[in-house]
Each structure stands twice: as C-alpha cells, then as structure tokens.
User: Which sequence fits this backbone?
C-alpha cells in the first residue's frame, strides 16, 4: 500500500474537520481560529502504539489559510455544504447542518432490507453507492449514473430551497434554479425545475452540472399542478421538436428487430434478403444515436442531412491531440477520493450496531484489507478539540488476537459520543435515498414483493415523493426474459450478435437483467456456448421455446459483467468534453480528474476491446483516448461505418 504521509495527514485532517463541523451549529459555530488553534490529529509518520497528537494546521498564516480553504473545498465537493455565520468582531463561523448530511434512519424491516440488497445489486450506483451499507459483500457494476451532486439536490427538493450550480449546455454558465423534481429517463437523471424568477420548467442533466450545487434560500411554494407538470417532464419536451423521417437498409433479421423496437416503422422488402425500413425520430440527435447504436448493421439512405451528420461524427471519433494526464487535479464529482473512502467506511460502521470486520468492509467497498485497517485504526484515535465539542466518530476496535493485531480480522463498532447528548448518527445520505428509490422501482418490474412497496413508501415519505422513474412498458421479449428469470426457465432464442449481425439460435438461462445508458442487457448461461455470456435484449429476435432450467451451472466468475470493466484488463484514460460524461459515469471503479487542457478525464480498466471501440463511437468528437496503447480505439469501427455511406 503506497500511501504518502502528506496524503494520510490530509485525509485525517479533512475527515476530522468534516465531522467536527457537523457537531457545530448556527448557535455554536467554529471560527477558523478555533479550528486552527485546537484541532488535533495524529503526528505522521504514526507510531501505532503511542500516537502523538499535533496541531492539524501548522505553518505560516498564509500557508494555514490556504490549507484551510483547500480542505473546505474538498469537503464541499463531497456534497457536505458548509454554512457560514457572521460573528461579532468581523470573523466568520462555520458549521454543517445535520440535515445537509443525510436523512434520519428509515426503521426498515428485515424483509425491506433484503429487497433493498437485491435491488441495489441489480440497479444501484455500484461500489460508490449505498450497496456498502446494505450489501452482503458482493460489489456489482453501477447501472445508474452516480453523482455526488445528488446530496444537495435531494435536500433542496425536500426543503423547498433554491440551487446554484455551474451547468454546461452550449457553454458553462452559472444557473439558479427552483428545484421541483428528479426524473430518471433511459438511465439518465435530470433535475427538473424553474430558472429563478421565471415560470418556465426546464430539465438539467446531472452529468452536465459542473460545480457542486449550493443550497440557498426558500422559494415560493408551487401548486400541485406545477409539481405534476415537473414530474411529467421528459427530455424531448424541449422547444417544439421537429420530427425527422429516416430511411435505412439492413438485413431482414435486423429489420424485424428494429420493427419490434419502433412500432411505427414501415418495412419494404428488397432483393437478396435486404429490407428498407422507414423510421420517424423526434429530431436529428435521436436519429444519430440510433444509427450509432446499430453500428455496421444498418446503412442510412436518407435524409442527406443525417448522412452528413453521421460522416462528420465518425470522422471525429478519437481524433485530436492527447492532453497530458500525468499531472491532474481532482474532479468535483469524483466519489473515489481518500476522504470519500474514509466517510464510506465510517457510514457503514455507523449503520451496523454490531460492527463490521475488516473483511466485510474490504469486500463491500472493493478496498484492500490493509487500507481498511489503516483508515479505521485512525478513526479509533480521534480526539478533536480536547473534548470541547461532541464528536460522532468514536470508533471502538475489537481484536480476536491482539498479539497479532496487524493481521487480525478486527471488528469496528461506532459509539455515540457526545456529552451534550445531541449526536444523531445519519449514515444514510439524501443521495442514498434517491438511489434506493430508483433501484426499488426498477426491481418492482421484475419481482412481486410487498416489501418493495412498503420500502418505497418509507423512502418517499422521507423525501416528500419528488422522484419519478420513466417506467415505459417493456416490449414483449423483455417481459418474457424477466418472467423467465423469476420462474427459473431457459429460453431458446434467435440472437444477432455484435460481430455476426445475423441471427443464430441460442439456448440461454437468464439470471439478471440490467440497464446501462438506456440499453437493457441480460446475463445468462448460454448452453450453446457452455459459458456465462451477456446479451443485449434488443438484439433478441424471437423467443422460440421456454422450458424449466434444472441443470446445475457453474458460478458466474464475472461480477462486473455489465461493462466488462474492472480490476483486470488494461488501464485506459479518456479525456472528453463535459457533455459527454454521461456515457462514462456508470463505469465501475472509474476515477475522475481534470486533464491539462481543463477537460474531465476518466481512468478505468477495460477487458473487452470491442466494448471500448463502441464506447468511443458513441462518444464521438470531443472524446480522445490519452493512453498511447489505445490511441486508435474506435477508429476501425468508425471507418467501417463510414464506408457504408
């Protein structure tokens, strides 16, 4: 574990400051002088047997001021809004409202906790979300777009307060919005609200928000009709979309698939197994997205404008200078930070009264046991401000073998620790409640369990029910696949794979169905290939037969089957424009930073080169691979698609 002393010291100082400010209040705020004079942390390097306490902030006045400002910024970037109070004498006091941190406990039943674990494993944010608080050790992919921006947004919705944030549309601008609802459409999350001072209702995609939203003052209450209109908002409700009629040619099998997904499609047969398909889209962007998803399996015949747009798009796939990413600065919405890791571990221990062992925490959050032990051991020695203030992070460590403490699978418990008796541990953040709400609604499409409905009711009561999931009716094949999962059946299907494009018969035993970037995938044991494989549901042509699946199957070794991105494979860094982040947000284990040219950069590992190629084609101009070994990713696929024009 390569951890520098300055990284360790910075994390402990920021964590101590975060928790300490939670115990301050508007009536008892802390000034910078209070904190700088009295806040203590362990001296680095640490003597584990006799940790020596030193002042957290040391150096010249200017160095201390800069350090304090950096720490406040990092805390705010994790969604913890630091409030300010003007003090007598001109100084400023600081505190964090408990309500800004998270929700009170939901008092969930055992059955409700069980369905939440299942829902999060299938439809949650992945390792950076609530799965670590409820999970049983499995670390799945993230199917939803994860965003630290959700914490202040959900809080503002609940309390009826304005939000100020940077937002990238045609340019990056500061917006002030009265939030009305959160809407999830095709796997993407939108904040729906009114630009301050107007009656207009607009949607803001969370992946285009460029700064941590700041919760402001109350805005005038809106009537029920306006709330209903906000919940009914969809992305295509923009300014009068102009329909675009598109004509493509493709194989008969692909034509049947397209007709199933687009009920209004018109098909005309040509010779040699080729068909013409006429489609209508809400606009050129929707048409372009369809063609990019189809890859080399369709040819655009008209209109000329779409052919020209597609040509320009493909010419720009993974093109342009590769900016420097060797020296980067942290991105505002990255959940994978040293401070973020410590807070995840602390919240998990706080939520489990009987405590959690190192092995539990390691598996829940995909961290090494050594890192978990190191962070949690530091929490056991926190003694901020000499007991002048309460502190909600008193961690007790229990060992089975104290003589071999360095290798013992130690257990950590949280104890409420406040002489004023005012501490209320809040391990559930507001964004966790949003994640639970959406995941449970997705799970309700697959499972019929009264505990799902009761859990949703408790969550919506806590957040005032301002979340809507686009629950469009599934097509016939999706419904059959979901039914087969619940009944434990096998299916005989026709399937057009990514590489062949032509349908072939397969026999599969589906186990999970999940959505990534608006596309449904099913994980199944394929008896035709004698292996666990991932299938796109929209490429299933027909279900030919159903039967019971009674044969034993080997365990699925690929926990990250949805994206084929994980700890194995090769590391890739992609730099992109801010509006392209939504494609990369769900990648598990992805870490974000800023490249030398100021654009966001995402670092992840990829196992399947074809996955990366298609990801780059979907991203289009403005996204470039900064890793030399993958400098040509996506270009061959783009060239093959362009040749069809």
Assistant:
């Amino acid at each position: 574990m390569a951890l520098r002393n300055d990284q360790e010291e910075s994390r402990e100082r920021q964590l101590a400051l975060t928790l300490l400010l939670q115990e301050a209040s508007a009536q008892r705020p802390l000034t910078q002088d209070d904190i700088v004079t009295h806040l203590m942390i362990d001296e680095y390097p640490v003597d584990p047997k006799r940790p020596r306490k030193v002042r957290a902030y040391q150096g010249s006045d200017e160095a201390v001021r800069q350090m304090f400002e950096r720490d406040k910024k990092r805390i705010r970037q994790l969604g913890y809004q630091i409030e300010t109070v003007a003090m007598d004498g001109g100084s400023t006091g600081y505190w964090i409202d408990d309500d800004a941190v998270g929700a009170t406990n939901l008092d969930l039943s055992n059955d409700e906790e069980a369905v939440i674990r299942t829902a999060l494993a299938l439809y949650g944010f992945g390792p950076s979300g609530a799965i670590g608080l409820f999970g049983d050790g499995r670390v799945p992919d993230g199917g939803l777009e994860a965003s630290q921006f959700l914490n202040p947004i959900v809080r503002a919705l609940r309390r009826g307060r304005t939000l100020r944030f940077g937002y990238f549309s045609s340019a990056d601008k500061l917006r002030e919005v009265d939030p009305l609802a959160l809407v999830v459409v095709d796997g993407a999350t939108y904040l729906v609200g009114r630009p301050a001072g107007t009656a207009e209702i607009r949607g803001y995609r969370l992946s285009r928000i460029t700064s941590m939203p700041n919760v402001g003052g109350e805005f005038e209450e809106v009537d029920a009709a306006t709330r209903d209109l906000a919940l009914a908002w969809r992305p295509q409700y923009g300014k009068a979309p102009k329909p675009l009629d598109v004509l493509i040619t493709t194989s008969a099998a692909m034509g049947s698939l397209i007709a199933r997904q687009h009920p209004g499609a018109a098909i005309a047969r040509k010779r040699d197994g080729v068909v013409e398909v006429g489609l209508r889209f809400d606009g050129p962007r929707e048409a372009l997205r369809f063609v990019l998803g189809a890859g080399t399996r369709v040819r655009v015949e008209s209109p000329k404008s779409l052919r020209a747009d597609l040509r320009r798009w493909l010419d720009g796939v993974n093109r342009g200078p590769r900016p420097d990413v060797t020296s980067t600065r942290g991105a505002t919405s990255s959940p994978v930070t040293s401070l973020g890791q410590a807070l995840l571990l602390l919240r998990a221990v706080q939520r489990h009264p009987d405590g959690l062992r190192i092995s539990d925490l390691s598996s829940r959050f995909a961290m090494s046991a050594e890192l978990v032990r190191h962070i949690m051991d530091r929490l056991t020695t926190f003694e901020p401000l000499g007991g002048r203030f309460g502190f909600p992070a008193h961690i007790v460590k229990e060992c089975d073998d104290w003589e071999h403490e360095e290798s013992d699978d130690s257990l950590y418990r949280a104890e409420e620790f406040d002489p004023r008796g005012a501490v209320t541990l809040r391990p559930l953040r507001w964004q966790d409640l949003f994640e639970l709400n959406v995941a449970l609604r997705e799970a309700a499409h697959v499972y019929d369990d009264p505990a799902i409905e009761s859990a949703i009711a408790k969550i919506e009561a806590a957040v005032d029910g301002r979340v809507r999931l686009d629950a469009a009716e599934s097509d016939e094949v999706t419904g059959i696949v979901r039914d087969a999962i619940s009944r434990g059946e096998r299916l005989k299907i026709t399937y057009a794979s990514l590489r062949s494009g032509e349908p072939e018969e397969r026999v599969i035993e589906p186990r999970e169905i999940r959505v990534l970037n608006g596309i449904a995938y099913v994980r199944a044991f394929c008896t035709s290939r004698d292996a666990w494989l991932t299938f796109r549901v929209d490429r299933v042509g027909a279900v030919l037969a159903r039967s019971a699946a009674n044969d034993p199957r080997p365990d699925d070794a690929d926990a990250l089957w949805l994206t084929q991105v994980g700890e194995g494979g090769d590391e890739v860094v992609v730099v992109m424009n801010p509006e392209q982040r939504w494609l990369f947000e769900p990648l598990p284990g992805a870490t974000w930073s800023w490249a030398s040219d100021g654009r966001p950069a995402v670092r992840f590992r990829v196992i399947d080169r074809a996955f990366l190629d298609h990801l780059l084609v979907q991203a289009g101009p403005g996204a470039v691979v900064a890793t030399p070994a993958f400098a040509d990713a996506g270009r061959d696929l783009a060239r093959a698609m362009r040749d069809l024009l």
Notes: The longest strand covers residues 172-185. Confidence is low (pLDDT under 50) at residues 328-336, 384-390, 419-423. The chain is about 35% helix and 25% strand.
